[in-house]
Amino acid sequence: MSTALASVGSAVNTTACPFCGSGCTLILADAEAFPVLSDPVTRGALCLRGWSAGELLDSPLRVLSARIRTRGSSLATVPAETALEHASARLAAIRSKHGPASIGILASARLTLEELHLLADLAHAIGTPHLDALQRLGSTPGGGPSLGLDVIARAARILVVGTDLSVRHPQAHRRVLEALGRGVPVRFVGSNGGPLAALATEWIRCLPGGEVEAAAQAARADDLILWSSELALHGQAGPALRKLGGARSWRLPDFVGQLGLHEAGIHPRAGGFAAYEMLQRAATGEVKALLVFADDPFEFFPALAARAFAGAEFVLVTDAVATRAAEAADVVLPGSLLAEKAGTLLAADGRRRTLEPARGARAGMSEGEVARRLAASLGGAAGPAPRASDLPLGPDGPAPDVPTADYPLVVALDGATLWGSHALVGATVTARREAWGLRTDSPDGWVTVNPTDAKALGVRHGWTVRVESDSGGLTLAVRADPHAAPGTAAIPMHCWERAGTALGALEVDPCLRIPVFRPRAVRLGRQ
Amino acid sequence: MAVATQPVHGASDLYVPRPVRILDVREEIVPDPAAGTRRTVTLTLERGDLDYLPGQFLQVTAFGGGEVPISISSPGGMPGALYLTIRDNGVVSGMLVAAKAGDVVGVRGPFGNHFDLDAHRGRDLFFVGGGCGLAPLRGLYWEALLRRSDFGRIVLLHGSRCPGEMLYGWQWPDYERQGVEILLSADRADDCWAKEEHPPRCVGLITKLFDQAHIVPERASAFLCGPPIMIENGGRELVERIGLAPERVLGTLERHMKCGVGKCGHCVVVDRYVCIDGPVFSYEELAALGRIEPAW
Amino acid sequence: MSDARYWASAAALDGILDRLAAERTLIGPVRRGGDVCFRPVARAADLCRDYVNALEPPKRWFLPTPERLARYRLPGGAPVDGGDALRETVFFGIRSCDVAGLAQLDRFFSGETIGRPDVADGPYLARRKRTTILSVVCQDPAETCMCVCCKGGPALDAGFDWQLTELSTGWLVEVGSAKGRELAGRFVSSLAPTDERMLAEQAGRVAGVVETFHRHSSRRVQSMAAGRMVSQGRLPEAFWAELGERCVECGGCAFVCPTCSCFNVVDAPEAGAGVLSPAGGPEPAVPGGPTSPNVEGTYDRLRLRDNCQLAGFVRQYGGSYPRATCGERCRTRFFHKLSWQFVARVGTLGCTGCGRCAQVCLGGIGIDVVSQRMTDALVGAPAAAAAAKGA
Lengths: 527, 296, 391
Hints:
The complex is a heterotrimer.
Chain A: E1 13-16, E2 25-29, E3 32-35, H1 48-51, E4 66-69, E5 75-78, H2 80-98, E6 103-107, H3 113-126, E7 131-133, H4 150-154, E8 157-161, H5 165-168, H6 170-181, E9 186-190, H7 195-199, E10 202-205, H8 211-218, E11 223-227, H9 230-233, H10 237-243, E12 249-251, H11 258-263, H12 275-283, E13 289-293, H13 302-311, E14 314-319, H14 324-328, E15 331-334, E16 343-346, E17 352-355, H15 367-379, E18 409-414, H16 423-426, H17 430-435, H18 437-441, E19 446-449, H19 451-457, E20 464-468, E21 473-480, E22 488-492, H20 496-503, E23 506-509, E24 514-517, E25 520-526
Parallel strand pairs in A: 6-7, 6-13, 8-9, 8-11, 9-10, 11-12, 13-14, 14-15, 18-22, 19-21
Antiparallel strand pairs in A: 1-2, 2-3, 4-5, 4-15, 16-17, 18-25, 19-22, 20-21, 20-25, 23-24
Helix pairs in contact in A: 2-15, 3-15, 12-13
Chain B: E1 18-29, E2 40-46, E3 57-62, E4 66-71, E5 81-87, H1 91-97, E6 104-111, E7 124-130, H2 134-146, E8 154-160, H3 172-177, E9 180-186, H4 191-195, E10 201-203, H5 209-212, E11 220-225, H6 228-242, E12 249-252, E13 268-269, E14 272-273, E15 280-282, H7 283-292
Parallel strand pairs in B: 7-8, 7-11, 8-9, 9-10, 11-12
Antiparallel strand pairs in B: 1-2, 1-6, 2-5, 3-4, 3-6, 12-15, 13-14
Chain C: E1 4-8, H1 10-23, E2 25-32, E3 35-41, E4 67-74, E5 80-81, E6 89-94, H2 96-109, H3 122-129, E7 131-136, E8 162-166, E9 171-175, H4 178-186, E10 192-193, H5 196-216, H6 223-231, H7 237-246, H8 252-256, E11 263-269, E12 297-305, H9 311-314, H10 326-338, H11 340-346, H12 356-360, H13 367-379, H14 383-387
Parallel strand pairs in C: 2-6, 6-7, 7-8
Antiparallel strand pairs in C: 1-9, 1-10, 2-3, 4-5, 4-12, 8-9, 11-12
């Protein structure tokens, strides 16, 4: 890395922050990120993830070379061409033996629009209907138009539903705070508020899973409604899309490239499996090959991903950073960071923003390039994919539990911990230290409750408790936090699979065919 | 081993660790996950020309892992070697406790201020070590023992969460022969331990030992090292209840450190750098810090 | 007071800058779209003239992130220092608030503030030694500027090699150091003597900026009231708790502050050379780093910018947090910037009024807002309560 006073490459290079849906613009000064002042979204501020983005460039966890695993052995470094040929050959053989629908493609919201189109083309070239992204997270057309941050500045009243904006959408959070400062009434509807709930004009407390209903009842015609995918996380995607879908409602995107997933048609075609279903079908051996681009299924579903990777005959992972998925793959190809890509991103308000490389791709390769090469070798003259129609909405997902005498608390996932297991965050030093900090302190996970509830239950912050539903239970450390509404409990997202399985909360929401954690009635007791 | 090159263009070697060989490793505390005790070892390092005073610390590098501050727990004059007692508290210290004789670690320092034993000549010395806090005090009381006639009573008070976490117990018989009084406390212990008569002990917090120690305040100086709450409560008891002069009560602060030289900011408490103004602080200084930042 | 003053025509100054750009590295303000950054330029003509300041603080040239402090190979290699190649550099266009910040950082990194020259920071000082500071007095401050409150400008008495003020014709050049004298001597043929009229014009311009600030700016660093409140620990927990709700721990304030310098140090494997630690296993010291001893490879001891308001910054070995809440950590920051204890140690207020923190804060609690709240708390203003729900 260059640390000289007058260094090569110290031209003014801007790029998009690769993390959340706020979509800020960074200047990379050597390897140091700074916010852009003149961009109306960024306005000279970033969150810690953005400030740490420069640490990705030379992270020890960069994937800079291709690797191949020969059966039963560890991964060996090979030239990228060798790995590409090998992957093509394996995929061609699997397709020939088991048919095109035995191959599944997992995309991500870390890619440019062009790269996503290339993945759609790859699916078309292979002939498979299985194309989706775990990071779709319930993002779908509907749920209101894509508004811009200016709409917050112009709102006469604001209703924030079920999302901790300070972590999920810091630029929206900032503008909401500014609105508060101007005397605009800001109300928060939710069970686990974060700082905004404490600062809001009113905190309308509800049980997890009850946000849509509570918001629909509380909303006034002149409210600007801000919401996010946490509602889908609780299994409420269907009701949210219906009831919070008006013109003055904005579903904030979670990831910088998430809107591109629609635009490029990254969702399963007719007869195709959604992302989570692909993993399930790979685990049973129905899906024989998985192509994973810039994502890590092990983040939230380590057990399922392990079974899926073991069940599949061939797994290719292409990524810029090392992940558990890359470790378990048969072939690894290097991807590139957003700072190294040229292309288009759809901003949160739907406008196109052009990205130019702020750095040369260290590994000389990108996810899009890999997709293009594989499509060429597997599809020949297949041509670009036809534009896919939107994913049809299925029936509503399972309803959340309500508290009972035996199970008086309702537990759900804490959406504010999204970044606490994200592969890109994990490849930085500073953002990782903060986002993963609680995991370091409580490696076995935790459950957050209101201090009043903790006291009533006879437990103290830091103690070990057993959380039980009528399906089963698990042991966690307890954290007392006044931001949690009484009667509710929250579990971090990296415990999604473990807690979801133990408590019988992990289900697939048929509305959008995404995995959810259905809020469950539980009891807490001293372990 | 490759020879370190000269620094270029004025970049200093303030931040470059010196390689030092481990001569010996002694197991002090065996890990017991059920009881929550963590592995603790004493490394004997080759000393070279490193000069230090009791209370000072080294920034110790586990090559490949990183650097942590470790108090020196041998007396200044000990020829040829120095002792570091290290507890497995994280990745870097975990690597250090797994090291073997012959391994090489990195060293920068010594850093920090020190205990000024001369200022307490002729007095009764009370060393109050909570848990691993006994390690930094070891060099100090050892030094006092080397000049035994300069001081009155020498009393060691050592408290732990449980008997399995006590440090240096193997030295007690030898110390007692040299006229050191030893008192032990454990937050929790079985009856077996509690009923043993020697050394005298109690079950409970270390401050419970103060009365057993029969402190004569006018003649006493106290040196406290351990968890902050122990230093705060213990210090206050000694000064306010038992009546020691505040300038005769000294404590140490421990902090996460990245540089050891007053630059990185990690060890700042209010306006003090633990690595420059400490780690040894007087009771008054600690009380003043506590007025601005109560939870130091 | 600067020891010598000259006048230079605009063309003469450009000529000097062109010569310096040819011989050394000339770093000055350049414009990219709506943003201004300090970057190397090939000629004076490439410099942007119409700017207030860059959001990037000039300190980043002296405290880069990452900076290699040492490097070693395993197995068996002794550590060597970071060994940067440094070139002679001239900074043109840097503002007084940043010059004042650098002066503080100079005293800090030289060990002067703690009376310990034996622990002077070599890497920082080596870079500073090879730079010449040609500052330019601000005549059109931004909305967030507050240097007037902090003796951070618009003009300074010291800290620069040259301080330049643009006059109606040409530039007033004030020499402030031996290095500046040497430079003036070198370019003596481009410099002319000053006269009373020029000095009066400069003084008038500076006074005009100060007056404009007092009259039109709504922002202040309320250092007197704030000093009293933080220095004596007079602000209740609720004050800091409310600030803690607004701080989102983005880190930005310290990253842009001209007087902040806290850093993290990690031993990092080379890019791409790291390995993921086993799932459920111990967390490595740096992502991709080893968790067992003696893992082969080349390791760089890097220092990275850090911020005392982040929870991970205050985490102690074993997992305790002496400042466990965000509010307590906010208290740390403002103590460092505004307390008398720090003025006593450092020599000046910890803030130079550059206004960057007001710009970068996602929670809207820059030093102006916070010091105003402290003032309200001091006088017991009911406005303090209203502020709890607003900006």
